[in-house]
Design a protein that fits this description.
Blueprint lengths: L20 H19 L4 E7 L2 H15 L3 E7 L2 H10 L8 E6 H9 L3 E2 L21 E6 L1 E6 L24 E4 L5 H18 L3 H13 E5 L2 H9 L5 E5 H9 L4 E4 L8 E8 L5 H11 L2 H11 L2 E2 L11 H9 L7 H18 L4 H14 L4
Parallel strand pairs: 1-2, 1-3, 7-8, 7-9
Antiparallel strand pairs: 3-11, 4-11, 5-11, 5-12, 6-9, 6-10
């Protein structure tokens, strides 16, 4: 069942400096819910923290409980960064069993800080070894990627952005919505790609900061959560965004006037991971669930009914739905240093929040004035 925050539950002291205020409030409220549920019993509980959304989580809850009578699957849906912040804040008294979903870069931080317990799932040999944590703290469950998502009722075919740089053209000024990247692993990965590419090409992230400043100057609003962002796109309160492939596919299925493109220069493939929370209250149940998530049955279920690209590499192509085969044919994986993002990503986001957010236009203006004052020759 989905865990709903209730009123009049005191929030604990924030321990993560990078958490957004809204994320901290959510964490505190939901902590009270979990503690209350644990105190009331409720059968063989299994608690998931996940950014995967109610479609996949609800599907897995129903399926898993049907196949495992007596298990009560409870889940809390929040952004990838918010999951990390929450698991970190609860480290002394863990409430969750499974950390289900998020970029491997965030899981790497969690592993380094002792938030995960090593566990090798039954399907470990069926996924790309390069996507597995060297110490076995997390394993890949799915693959996904940011795409350019737009409202096709207002964005004409002739002006559809075909690559990331197209978002910086004058025609999209004040038409772009961006999911708040401080709470989003997807956006952190995208921003990290921009900065890592800059380091590789020039030796510094300066060109990447310039690109992100230009994007900020184009941005109409940073939206707190994906549901609100999609709603705003549907209402034409913004026309274009960078967002995750799975949500884009869901919106198309539901008849939303939204379409997407894979950028020509490449999109950062996100290795969406799963791990056992250190000190999980129900560790045995958590391990059984992790084994199930990577099974052939669950991987194909997620692909066919929830638009997830399986991490397993041994599934026959013909067993995958048509949309997944199309993605495999059309997507261009971006080439960038993921280790650099893992090492500097958290600090980069702090710098972006402090120096770029809402200041892009002013930053560009000052740089232009400084350049104009430089003597020629």
């Amino acid at each position: 069942m989905r865990l709903h925050p209730t009123q009049n539950v005191p929030a604990p002291t924030a321990r993560s400096r990078s958490a957004s205020a809204a994320g901290l409030v959510l964490a505190g409220l939901a902590a009270g819910v979990l503690i209350a549920l644990a105190a009331c019993g409720g059968g063989d509980t299994l608690v998931l923290y996940s950014p995967h959304g109610r479609d996949l989580l609800g599907l897995f809850e129903t399926t898993y409980e049907r196949e495992h009578p007596g298990i009560d699957v409870q889940w809390l849906d929040m952004g990838s960064q918010e999951v990390y912040d929450r698991v970190r804040s609860e480290h002394a008294n863990p409430q969750a069993d499974v950390w289900f979903g998020g970029p491997s870069t965030i899981f790497a931080r969690g592993a380094e800080e002792g938030l995960l317990e090593a566990y090798r799932p039954a399907w470990a040999d069926a996924v790309d070894a390069a996507s597995i944590d060297p110490d076995g703290f997390y394993y890949p469950a799915y693959r996904t990627a940011p795409v350019i998502l737009f409202n096709d009722r207002v964005v004409a075919k002739s002006e559809v952005p075909r690559d990331w740089d197209d978002l910086l053209t004058p025609r999209f000024h004040d038409r772009i919505l961006i999911r708040d990247p401080l709470a989003s692993g997807t956006m952190r990965t995208f921003f990290g790609m921009i900065l890592a590419r800059s380091v590789r090409r020039t030796g510094t992230p300066d060109a990447g900061w310039q690109w992100l400043a230009r994007l900020d100057a184009q941005t109409r609003e940073y939206v707190l959560n994906p549901a609100l962002m999609i709603e705003k796109l549907n209402r034409q309160e913004g026309d274009v965004t960078v967002w995750e492939l799975t949500d884009a596919l869901w919106q198309r299925k539901r008849g939303a006037p939204l379409d997407f493109v894979f950028p020509r220069s490449g999109t950062p493939i996100i290795v969406d991971s799963i791990g056992l929370v250190a000190g999980a209250p129900h560790a045995a149940r958590a391990k059984a669930f992790i084994d199930w998530v990577g099974s052939r049955e669950a991987q194909l279920l997620a692909a066919r009914q929830a638009f997830r690209i399986p991490a397993r590499t041994d599934l026959p192509r013909e067993d995958l739905p048509a949309w997944a085969q199309r993605v495999m044919d059309e997507i261009v994986p971006a080439d960038f240093d993921r280790g650099l993002v893992e090492q500097y990503g958290a600090d980069w986001m702090k710098t972006w929040d402090r120096e770029i957010r809402g200041r892009g236009a002013e930053r560009l203006r000052r740089q232009g004035e400084a350049a104009a004052q430089q003597p020629e020759g």
